[in-house]
Amino acid sequence: MAFIATLSTGSGTATIRLAGELDAATAPEFHDAIDDAVATGAARLVIDASELTYIASAGLRALVFARQKVAEDVTISLVGVTEPVLKVIKMAGLDHGFDITAS
Hints:
Layout: E1 4-10, E2 13-22, H1 27-39, E3 44-55, H2 57-69, E4 75-81, H3 83-91, E5 99-102
Parallel strand pairs: 2-3, 3-4, 4-5
Antiparallel strand pairs: 1-2
Helix pairs in contact: 1-2
Family: Belongs to the anti-sigma-factor antagonist family.
Protein name: Anti-sigma factor antagonist
Domain STAS: 3-103
């Protein structure tokens, strides 16, 4: 499956839907979606990872990038995180900087 990062907005929330594998080759596309989400001025960023099948270290760095790019008062929620992806996020210790809802 090809990687897809799709941004939608509404009601003060920017949602980025991720599908496929988030790795070094695809992280720049996710960075672009994060920049676009920040530009909306949304008070909440939702990252829908329900179709994300794999996350590499570059994907983890992209999550850190997201946390650094948004304002401190913006909530970032990871929703629909699959067990394999959640395991990697937890092993990296990134589960404390985000509101995470597993699938």
